[in-house]
Amino acid sequence: MTRTRRPVVAGWFTDDTVPDGEFRLLGTRCSACAAVFFPREDDACRNPACPGGGALAETPLSPRGRVWSYTDGRYRPPAPYVSDPEAPWEPYTLVAVELAAEGMVVLGQAAPGVGTADLAVGMEVEVVPGVLHRDAEHVWTTWRWRPVGTEGRA
């Protein structure tokens, strides 16, 4: 049986099958103040200094950034997150990445095989497609952060 690929949250990132292969997080930019938001904002600008009235347009975020902080997740997440209590627990690495052009920090898991020992504050990383969970019907896709130059890693 073929599983359908589904994003964990629709509209937050490009499909990992895009023709040019350029996987990107998607935010929104306010036309009045140029503030960029991720997660995306579709109703109104969240910038308290915005003069108001600006249209919000989808904008791809920078594909690379610098590690701002990182840690390891050593606990099973609580509901509503998917966590099979029968499956062995595997710790994961969380990475906070500064996107300088957008003036923001974006949190996400590290790519498989990347642990805290592989990261350093200030290191350049890139966003890559990832899989959060598989069930009988779907492959739930998400984004991950990977150090630049480690494309061949698991």
* SS-derived structural category: mainly beta
The gyration radius over C-alpha positions equals 17 Å
What composes the largest sheet? 5 strands, mixed, barrel
Fraction in helix: under 10%
For the residues shown, what is the average pLDDT?
A: 87
Give the strand order of the largest sheet, numbering strands 1, 2, ... along the chain: 5-6-7-9-8
The string of secondary-structure elements, in order, is EEEEEEEEE
Strand segment count: 9
- Note the total helix count: 0
Uncertain segments are none
Tertiary shape: globular
* N- to C-terminal distance: 25 Å
What is the number of domains? Answer: 1
* Beta-strand proportion: 35-45%
